[in-house]
Amino acid sequence: MISHVKKLSFLVFILAAGMGVILFQIKQKVIFLEKDLVLVNKRIVEVKEETHILEADWGYLNSPERIRELSKAHLKLRPVDVIQLASLESLQNEEQSWKLVRKKRKG
Amino acid sequence: MLFTAASEGFHSSSIEALPLGRSNIVDRNGVIVATAVFTASLFANPGEIINVEEAAYKISKALPSVDRRDLLSKLQSKRSFVWVQRNLTPHEQKKVHNLGIPGIHFQREERRVYPHGSLFSHILGYTDIDNHGLTGVEKEFDETLRRSNQSLELSLDIRFQNILREELSKGIKDFKALGGNGIIFDAQTSEVLAMVTLPDFDPNHIEERSSKTIFNTNTLGVYEMGSLYKIFTLAMALDSGKVTLDSGYDASKPLKIGRFYIDDYYGQKRWLSVPEIFMYSSNIGTAKMALDVGTEGQQSFLKKIGLLDPLDLEIPEQGSPLFPSNWRDAHTMTISYGYGLAITPVHLVNAVAAMINGGIYRKPTILKKNKLEKGQETRVISQKTSKTIQKLMYLSVQQGTGKKANLAGYLVGGKTGSANISENGKAYDKKKHRSSFLSAYPMDNPRYLIYITLDQPKGNENTHGFSTGGWTSAEITKNITRRINIISARLPIDESKPEVRSAMAIKIRSKPLAA
Lengths: 107, 515
What we know:
The complex is a heterodimer. The termini of chain A are far apart. The radius of gyration of chain A is 38 Å and the shape is elongated. The longest helix of chain A is centred in the N-terminal third of the chain and has 58 residues, at 4-61. Chain A is mainly alpha-helical. Chain A is built from four helices and no strands. Chain B has 17 helices and 18 strands. In chain B, strands 1, 2, 3, 4 and 5 form a five-stranded mixed β-sheet that branches. The longest helix of chain B is centred in the N-terminal third of the chain and has 17 residues, at 158-174. By secondary structure, chain B is an alpha+beta fold. Classes of the chains: A mainly alpha, B alpha+beta. At the A-B interface, helix 1 and helix 2 of A face strand 2, helix 7 and helix 16 of B.
């Protein structure tokens, strides 16, 4: 007959070994995750750099001079004049806007 | 052992702290105007190279800008490190890499790039190969741009800057001028919204620059501004209480100082009231007005609007005003109508802003102002005096010499100023002149101040041969005003409406009050 003490010791031993295995697995997992983390951080830096370059490219593509040349070459638009600006109120008051247009046409 | 396996240096470094090179400089709306890109620079370790001649040949073929003989001598030297070519493009880097030559390596380097070319040249300045700022904002904020991750926000607006540069450039061409400069200024906050000097340079290609193109006329050049000073003299005299709108002076005869005579360009040959003196730009009347205020009064007034101190702007290229060391009555008179005191265009624009914005002087700035922070404000003239100046400048454009700058519907006010240039103390050369126009609108509560100067413009068919500010610079101003209103969607108002007319009305006397 195995004594209660021996039974308990055996149980505790199994538990300790089990915990050891689990702990080892967790530690392994952590090591892998930390490796992953380094790679992700590295990738973040790369993406940030790519974004930075794209922002510079975007700025260059939007340069007023370039837009002007492109619009001249491809769009059939003319520069707007102030008389063409209107507010909602002025549109409601139709007579007033016609007055302004007539004035512009005259002078 | 299970419990001693420590994490071997796998730290999650703070991503935020990693800098992306020299900080960006942006305009007031966040548009990037200066940024850093990373490039590969090619260097060699001559000791490691097996066949020096073959290496020099292959590399110079792949990189046309590298001189084969020059490279050969470098590779034959006993040094362990020589630069072959710095800042290669990715394409060039690939070509050289594919040559497979041992002993040559790439080093990651940073290079400053300006996506908008010459648009902001004088303000931004440029850096050297090692990214040290040499001029402009790049120099002034060199430390900050290197250390901090935050973008530097300028007060300038790329749209306004573009409009100014385009119209100024067109004007220089139309009037065959040598060059020109302009400023668009916020009269309420003293922020510079646009600043251009032509000819200018491309900071991406600084090897093409010359001493002429890098000169920032607006902040460094000092000039006698001619008739534009009359704005200050008038404000000074009215604010001092020594003159009123009803008082005036006899401008029928030229004024004698020493050997010289002060005379009027548009001589009316009679008594002129104070508003008339401004309208007809009378030198005689203005000089007499200044004498009544006195030399000390004039000096303290000019000092409080910043015209006697060096410019304090956030770039290193700043001009210091020139004025007489022995300032006497004769100088007081000439300075009153524009000669004897030389200031920079930024000095001028900022001081005029204080005259028309209700009377508050603020320090000019090229950095974006936080709407909440007010900064230092000093009252230099009363609100009443400021209102009078507004009305007189409005009149000058509606009925006076500034008619060409008028864009109907925007309450444009302004003043022409044509000044002859005196070089190195020699006599004023009548052929060499600078034609300026200073305008502001809407004149009942001015927001935008536009200053344009052309260097030696020539009249053309449209100006009937005239080349003064009212004919040349005023034209440019009108075009700029129109375009600014389009992009800020500012609607015109009906200036002929009675309430508008009465708000800007000013009673002008032609005869002295009965004694």
